[in-house]
Amino acid sequence: MNKVVASIITIGDELLIGQVIDTNSAWMAQELNKYGIWVAHRVAVGDVWEDIWQALDEESRRSSIILITGGLGPTADDITKPLLNKYFGGKMIVDQKALDNVRWIFERVLKRPMIDRNLRQAEVPDSCTVIQNKRGTAPGMWFEREGRIFVSMPGVPHEMKGMMADDILPTLRERFQLPYIAHRTLLTAGIGESFLAEHIKTFEEALPASIKLAYLPNYGMVRLRLTIRAEAPRIPAEAAAGSAISDAATQTPVTEAETLIQQQFDTLRGLVTEWMVTDEDISLQEAIGRLLKTHGKTLGTAESCTGGYIAHLITSIPGSSHYYKGSVVSYANEVKTHCLGVSPDTLAAHGAVSEETVREMVRGALAGLDTDYAIATSGIMGPDGGTPDKPVGMVWIAVGNRQNILAQKFSFRFDRLRNIELTATNALNQLRKFILSTPQ
Prior knowledge:
The protein is α/β, with parallel strands linked by helices.
């Protein structure tokens, strides 16, 4: 099977100067990969006519699918639409559905008057197929030339993702005979990438050629992902209409691939059981949420150095209200005393960054928030505030319930933001291990 290849072009000066981080191309590449479309190239260009034109020429020589985001706004520097109009030799027209959408958003949602600049967002080249924007005002545009597909979408991530999910990816799947791709992912914590790689070296070397292993490290955790590709036969039209076609005729390559990758994944899982957080492609906070829901338990947090970041991670998961009650962000010592009941004598004798303090913070959170489990953090995130006895990066984390509290000291060595993120990750993982080791 010939590989279906795509290129991604992101447009905007703000991307080149670092004012905005390009998350669009990473997300699109992940989604395309799920469909069996190989991303050959990703390029960012500024709001410069010649650079955008050149990128379109170059990427159309590389790829059969060119996805473009950015430059579709109402301001003068948004030049993508007029450029595409000229590139594909069209003329500008008003798309009535897009115009109705713009009017509805301003009149019914934003409840403010429109100006001509807003109305011009409904103008599109007559050489494109319009992709309606269900989440914003700028429509997307689908062009085809010389066997190549060009799709232009807004740079706003929420709007781009809606178009990709609702219209673009399903259409690409219909247009191309794509391979079947399967992933199996597990998450580990408490072991570094190099040590993990050494531990499973023999397994990795023995993998079948059709299976690839990827290491995806992030903030004290490592995801291991197995990927297999198989030719997915195109189902004849009569099958889609309901004709009976045997599984053997249409599913054999897929079934074989599924069996093979599952066998290898089961082996991998057995090798890393000691550090495995979950054998699904989910986050640590989601895994903990499922654990709490399974046991019918609740959680509260008492955060000093993490400043509510752990609460943010937990509440980013839909349905977290079923098991998470709240947090006390006790950044100042007086808040630790007044809201969590930490003894002033403890603070005077041991300081805020100490085992004694985080243990009392856990007790205060359990009582004040009335939860089954609690997490407490206190540390020095930097870049200043450290002392010889308590340097920057020193953190105490405690987790516990009303019967038992475990506290552990960590030493991180990074910048402030990464120290906070690592503290949160380790706190959540400590809680996970504590729950698993506690009789329910």
